[in-house]
């Protein structure tokens, strides 16, 4: 889940000569409070529901009538967010209030099961909302329309300000139960923005909402990389002079240096255990890939070539690191073992390939590839080396990062004249724009935290 700039390799050369070109990333704010999840009054028994839990061969047909109860604007936001999350997941064919308006419904759920089934639905999603003092209470249920039994029931209570987080949490629960895979509604995307003048690190929800600044260095800060637990961001900043690697705690806003020695340290990426970072560092006038502990100690050099080696991306399982190298002439994508051995080239198509990002399964690398004079997003299978180009047309696309479920890619494009963050499905379809203000680039999608 890592993104890097397509032109960073060239910029690295220019930076060493004049420290003038590296850039991109915006500001911060406190994350929303966690809603309090509570067990419902009566948990449903385990029910086997006949749905495809493996490869998504078809969409699950789900009836989703309007939630019951009045909870003001927060309640409306909660319902709309659940709908958007489930629709955006791509797993469901949703029949909402308009599609269901032609059914003769009595209001008694058990009596209405046949009516919901009559339009081809397999499951029914119901929601009840109410206010209790200064809190919003939401209860969501999923019923198997074949058996009429509740197969999932959840209750959430919290301040009105966390209505979106309640919705994301419930939507992910629905996806996890019905599809058997984790949802991504609670994931976040870090990126670089210059909307405030200087380039700073920013964070937003996976759907582009709730954009907030993380750094305020009033200098160039860029290339954010999420820690595996989603609590911290490593990034590059020039605020203290030469580019160095820093660490920001997203919750508290605290920041500290990781590696600032020497004249040039850029493009950090976390090891899967969160204990080390790999990054590019100037070594006797050349840029090579190094690793270090989070306190900057145990500095270890991995590459030693006559070309520029930069933009490392640590694999999800930790055994390999992808990186960009110009050792063969133009920048290309290479792989090596996490200790620097077994270095081999992965990209063989296009005239310039840079900024690899792993899929969560570790079988695919997405990266920027120049095709017919335009930067586009390509994906290569690291075993078969089969390569597909996902984007096309003018405007250029670069700096991909893969969603934690491996089904979507966020990337930078200036198809509308200015760098903005977009997201698309893994096949290149369903492109949506996430940012609009200022110039935005170098996104990194957070990973899914382990379930507690």
What's the quick description here?
The chain is 13% helix and 40% strand. With 452 residues, the protein is mainly β.
**If strands are numbered along the chain, what order do they take across the biggest sheet?**
2-7-6-5-3-4
Radius of gyration: 23 Å
CATH-assigned homologous superfamily of the largest domain: TolB, C-terminal domain
Provide the CATH architecture of the largest domain: 6 Propeller
Q: Please work out how many helical segments DSSP would assign.
A: 5
How far is the N terminus from the C terminus? 22 Å
| Major sheet attributes | 6 strands, mixed
Number of strands: 31
**What coarse outline follows from CA principal-axis ratios?**
elongated
CATH class of the largest domain: Mainly Beta
Helicity, in percent? 10-25%
Q: Which residues form runs of ≥5 with pLDDT under 50? A: 2-35, 37-55
How would you characterize this protein structure?
The protein is mainly beta and 452 residues long. It has two domains: 279 residues, TolB, C-terminal domain (Neuraminidase), CATH 2.120.10.30; 130 residues, Rossmann fold (3-Layer(aba) Sandwich), CATH 3.40.50. It contains five helices and 31 strands. The strands form seven sheets. Strands 2-7-6-5-3-4 form a six-stranded mixed beta sheet, sandwiched between helices. Strands 1-10-9-8-31 form a five-stranded antiparallel beta sheet, with no helix packed on it. The radius of gyration is 23 Å and the shape is elongated.
């Amino acid at each position: 889940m890592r993104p890097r700039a397509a032109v960073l390799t060239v910029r690295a050369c220019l930076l060493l000569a004049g420290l003038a070109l590296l850039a991109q990333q915006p500001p911060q704010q406190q994350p929303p409070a966690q809603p309090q999840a509570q067990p419902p009054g009566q948990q449903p028994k385990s029910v086997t529901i006949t749905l495809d839990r493996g490869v998504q061969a078809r969409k699950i047909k789900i009836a989703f009538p309007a939630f019951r109860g009045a909870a003001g604007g927060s309640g409306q936001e909660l319902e709309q967010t659940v709908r958007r999350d489930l629709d955006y997941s791509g797993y469901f064919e949703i029949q909402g209030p308009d599609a269901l308006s032609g059914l003769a419904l009595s209001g008694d759920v058990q009596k209405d099961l046949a009516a919901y089934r009559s339009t081809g639905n397999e499951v029914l999603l119901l929601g009840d909302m109410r206010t209790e003092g200064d809190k919003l209470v939401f209860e969501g249920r999923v019923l198997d329309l074949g058996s009429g039994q509740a197969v999932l029931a959840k209750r959430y209570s919290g301040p009105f300000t966390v209505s979106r987080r309640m919705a994301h949490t419930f939507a992910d629960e629905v996806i996890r139960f019905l599809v058997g895979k984790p949802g991504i509604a609670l994931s976040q995307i870090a990126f670089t923005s210059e909307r405030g003048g200087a380039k700073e690190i920013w964070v937003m929800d996976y759907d582009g909402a709730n954009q907030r600044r993380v750094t305020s260095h009033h200098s160039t800060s860029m290339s954010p990389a999420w820690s595996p637990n989603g609590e911290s961001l490593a990034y590059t900043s020039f605020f203290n002079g030469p580019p160095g690697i820093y660490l920001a705690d997203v919750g508290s806003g605290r920041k500290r240096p990781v590696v600032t020695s020497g004249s040039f340290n850029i493009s950090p990426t976390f090891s899967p255990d969160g204990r080390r970072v790999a990054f590019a560092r100037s070594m006797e006038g050349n840029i090579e890939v190094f690793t270090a502990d989070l306190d900057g100690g145990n500095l270890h050099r991995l590459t030693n070539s006559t070309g520029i080696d930069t933009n490392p991306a640590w694999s999800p399982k930790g055994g390999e690191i992808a990186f960009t190298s110009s050792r063969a002439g133009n920048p290309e994508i290479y792989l090596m073992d996490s200790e620097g051995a077994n270095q081999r080239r992965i990209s063989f198509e296009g005239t310039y390939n840079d900024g690899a990002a792993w899929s969560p399964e570790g079988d695919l690398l997405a990266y920027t590839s120049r095709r017919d004079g335009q930067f586009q997003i390509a994906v290569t299978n690291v075993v078969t080396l089969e390569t597909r180009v996902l984007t096309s047309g003018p405007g250029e696309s670069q700096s991909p990062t893969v969603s934690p479920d491996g089904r979507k890619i966020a990337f930078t494009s200036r198809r509308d004249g200015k760098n903005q963050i977009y997201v698309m499905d893994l096949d290149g379809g369903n492109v949506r724009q996430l940012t609009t203000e200022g110039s935005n680039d170098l996104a990194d999608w957070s990973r899914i935290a382990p379930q507690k």
